[in-house]
Amino acid sequence: MYDHYKLLGERSVFAHGVHLCDDECARLAETGSAVAFCPTSNLFLGSGLFNLPMAEKHKLNVGLGTDVGGGTSFSLLQTLNEAYKVMQLQGARLSPFKSLYLATLGGARALRLEDRIGTLQPGTDADFLVLDYNATPLLSYRLKQANNIAETLFVLMTLGDDRTILQTYAAGKLVHQR
Question: Residue limits of the Amidohydrolase-related domain (predicted)?
């Protein structure tokens, strides 16, 4: 129906995508459309699991979404935790680096704003968080066991939450500090 009414295109971001078939994924990718992967709401509602490997096979733009309507949190860290679980349930792996991509540049590309947000490249808006590695005793303990950046990211994405955010910067300016 969306295709019939010419609603597919580079400015189209479809939430969830839990019922997409292979052909639909291919068509979305072909038109430059994107999908917001919303694992917290999908798990809360029991509506299905997004097939990220299928989307990647078709080079579909995918970003991470929190979904205020059916989700349980605005926290991208908690959403990354749920995304990891969704992939585990499907027998697929979600690497810490892919997770970081989905939460940053993947979302920016889905919105066609990658020239402004999603990276710390010179000339971009410099929206970023400063995280507190000692926010909780468990987080601190697990991070001390991390041997490399991948392990550090994994701990942050599985144990991090709103308490982990120490500072928030928007357009390079401090806008919130705990």
Answer: 4-175
Q: Which single residue is written with the structure tokens 């939430």?
A: 15
Q: Could you tell me if 44 and 54 are in contact, meaning their C-beta atoms sit under 8 angstroms apart?
A: no
Give the angle subtended at the CA of 115 by the CAs of 109 and 117, to the nearest 5°: 70
Distance CA 103, CA 157 (A): 10
| DSSP code, position 9 | S
Q: What is the pLDDT of residues 57-86, one digit of tens each?
A: 999 999 999 987 887 888 999 999 999 999
The span from the CA of 39 to the CA of 42, in Å, is 5
CA 75 – CA 135 distance, rounded (Å): 15
Q: Please state, in angstroms and rounded to a whole number, the distance separating the CA atoms of residues 172 and 58.
A: 35
| Residue whose tokens read 């990891």 | 84
Measured distance CA(26)–CA(31) in Å, rounded: 9
Instruction: Kindly report the pTM of this predicted structure.
Output: 0.90
Mapped onto helix, strand or coil, the DSSP state of residue 21 is coil
Q: Where do the domains of the chain lie?
A: 13-177
15, containing H or E segment: strand 13-15
Q: Which fold has domain 13-177?
A: TIM Barrel (3.20.20)
- Helix, strand, or coil here: 51? coil
